[in-house]
Design a protein that fits this description.
The structure holds 2 protein chains of 2 kinds. Chain A has helices spanning about 5-20, 25-55, 75-95, 100-105, 110-125, 130-145, 150-185, 190-195, 205-220, 225-230, 235-260, 270-290, 295-315, 320-350, 360-365, 365-380, 385-400, 405-430, 445-460, 465-480, 480-490; strands spanning about 55-60, 70-75. By secondary structure, chain A is an all-alpha fold. In chain A, strands 1-2 form a two-stranded antiparallel sheet. Chain A is globular, with a radius of gyration of 21 Å. Chain B is mostly helical. Chain B has one domain: Helix Hairpins. Chain B contains 3 helices and no strands. Classes of the chains: A mainly alpha, B mainly alpha. The interface of A and B includes residues 158, 180 and 181 of A.
């Protein structure tokens, strides 16, 4: 029994409850920041406990698995929780740079905390129905954050987002209904044990297809990605940042979890299918990014394209491939969150993120430009920054497993994303701004979170060796789930 | 009974998906509602149908003899209904806003 596991859920919930009682937005900002720091601290404490004592299990209300709801923290969950805490701290700190006061008083801070609670819950739960519930918590919070902004484009964007995600939820629920009907349990460890005996329940391929579709919509994989570029450029920078950093990653995490615990020995064609969709996502996302003329739209399409890298390892189904993808997830959370915050600089200075109004930031504010340069080139995968290391691992894994075409496509996509990032740099920082552009400056409240995340990206690069060892051992654990199953069903 | 409910669930899915493809926001929302209800019936049927055998332990009996109704799907449906209801209410509110800001309830024309 590890009561510490409830903290990443309880802390944001308590913070949200307190925030609802306070009307003063200045105090709200401080409380939200404190809440996010506590969340990060609890995540680090869990990570240290998992590192010292192995997988931690909490059976809610002491109902033994598989009858109750189980919370499990293995190394994968622990690392992702630390990422949630980091993104939470960065975005709540960014709120000090100013949010539209009317919207801030309409409940921005408490809803953001509920969103963090949903993401933490999804990373911790060991029960599939509970995962669905966390998905809904997360989605409703994100719906509200998106719809708090009521100009025409934003409401429109919110509607696309809501519809596609509700369809994904319905598909996930269908999969759960079938799965429960055929197996009588929704505890992931119990299901994994059932699957490992080799006697698969009827309809297991339909279930795999339904689970895959639901998670692929949430992760924005091709051909289900259209909701993401249609909506992520609309809300203010901090909200786009937290969505981009965390929400799609929950879809990727769930896919990795379910397809390693349950559907690990599906037909090899299943893996090829996942690989093909990942590659299609990369190609389509990065190519579309080249056609856009807006900083945030280019980021949205790059986000889609790079999701392909995070699921590619699952398609390759080798330890190296999975390790590369997990490393990519961690690198991508840091880099993309940071870049949406950088887009916030432009929104403040030029009131838009369209290329026509941007430019000359490198000349006027070289320090801010340098802070933005590092995540930009990390995103593109320029060696020696963090993206390159993860990409090399993935390409290597593709070549090792004989999928030369996949490795080749990944390399070409790497070049294309370098091209689109070079465009971002040129249009945003290097070219001369139009003479009538507004001349506001970035403020330190924006630069501190951006600088912090940039420092973390640099640390990530320097610590790439140990981090890669960590994701390699996580990948090895994922491919042999015995320890996870044993910890849930016996321990706790 | 299973067959009847299975056909009902299937029809709700089909009607829901058809409405999701229609051009009006109102149809889209009704479609979402039908889809979630179809899912709820599917969970209900897949849990196995029983009649008047509640899973209650009679006094003095150490364990329950099958067959008895499985309470888990019912609690799953209850949760799903509550969530679906909340989300649907939210979608209605959002559709109202789209209608107010764009003056149309056309899915494509509200740009």
């Amino acid at each position: 029994m590890a009561p510490i596991l409830i903290l990443p859920i309880a802390i944001p919930m308590a913070t949200a409850a307190v925030l609802l009682l306070i009307r003063n937005t200045r105090i709200q900002r401080w409380l939200a920041l404190v809440g996010a720091f506590c969340l990060l601290a609890s995540a680090i404490a869990i990570a240290l406990t998992v590192r010292a004592d192995g997988i931690q299990v909490l059976q809610a209300a002491s109902w033994a698995a598989p009858f109750g709801i189980t919370f499990v923290a293995d190394r994968l969950s622990a690392v992702l929780l630390v990422a949630v805490g980091t993104v939470g701290v960065a975005t709540t700190a960014y709120a000090f740079a100013g949010i539209d006061p009317r919207r801030e008083s309409a409940g921005y801070h408490p809803v953001l905390m509920v969103l963090l609670m949903g993401v933490s819950g999804a990373f911790l739960t060991g029960d599939l129905f509970n995962l669905y519930v966390w998905f809904e918590v997360m989605l409703v919070a994100s719906f509200v954050l998106m719809a708090l902004y009521r100009n025409r484009m934003q409401v429109r964007a919110a509607f696309t987002y809501v519809t596609l995600n509700l369809i994904a939820s319905a598909i996930l629920l269908t999969a759960l209904g079938l799965l429960y009907g055929k197996t009588g349990t929704l505890n992931m460890a119990d299901l994994s044990r059932m699957w490992s005996t080799g006697e698969l329940p009827p309809l297991h391929l339909s279930m795999a297809a339904l689970f895959f579709t639901a998670f692929a919509i949430k992760a924005a994989l091709f051909p289900w990605f259209s909701w993401l570029p249609a909506s992520y450029h609309a809300p203010p920078a901090a909200i786009s940042a937290i969505f981009a950093g965390l929400l799609t990653k929950v879809g990727v995490y769930s896919m990795v979890r379910v397809f390693t615990l349950l559907f690990q020995n599906i037909h090899p064609a299943g893996h090829t299918f996942i690989l093909a969709l990942s590659l299609a996502t990369m190609v389509v996302g990065v190519t579309c990014a080249l056609t856009q003329r807006d900083f945030r739209r280019v980021l949205s399409f790059n986000l889609v394209g790079h999701i392909g890298f995070t699921t590619m390892g699952l398609g390759l189904a080798t330890p190296l491939g999975l390790a590369g993808s997990l490393l990519y997830v961690l690198h991508h959370i840091l880099a993309i969150t940071n870049l949406y915050l950088v887009a916030g600089l432009f929104l403040r200075m030029r009131r838009t993120s369209e290329f026509d109004r941007l430019g000359s930031l490198f000349r006027t504010h070289p320090f801010a430009a340098l802070l933005a340069l590092i995540p930009l080139f990390a995103l593109a995968g320029v060696p020696p920054l963090s993206g390159a290391i993860a990409k090399i691992a993935l390409v290597r894994a593709a070549f090792d497993s004989g999928a030369y075409w996949a490795g080749a496509i990944a390399l070409v996509v790497g070049l294309l994303s370098l091209l689109s990032v070079a465009r971002l740099w040129d249009e945003g920082f290097w070219k001369s701004a139009p003479p009538d552009a507004d001349k506001a400056s970035p403020i330190w409240q924006q630069l501190v979170p951006i600088g912090g995340l940039t420092a973390l990206t640099l640390t990530f690069t320097l610590a790439a060796g140990p981090l890669f060892e960590l994701t390699s051992s996580i990948a090895a654990d994922l491919l042999r789930p015995d320890a996870y199953v044993h910890a849930v069903l016996q321990g706790g | 009974m299973e067959l009847l409910l299975a056909i009902t669930a299937g029809s709700l899915y089909a009607a829901g998906l058809y409405l999701l493809l229609r051009p009006r926001l109102a149809q889209l929302i009704i479609g979402l509602g039908l889809l979630t209800n179809g899912t709820n019936i599917l969970i209900f049927v897949s849990g196995g149908l029983t009649r008047a055998i509640p899973p209650v332990l009679p006094e003095g009996q150490p364990s329950l003899e099958p067959p008895f109704a499985d309470p888990v799907p019912q609690s799953l449906i209850l949760t799903a209904i509550v969530i679906g209801f909340g989300v649907l209410a939210f979608a209605l509110l959002l559709a109202h806003h789209v209608h107010r800001t764009s003056g149309s309830d056309d899915v494509g024309g509200a740009r």
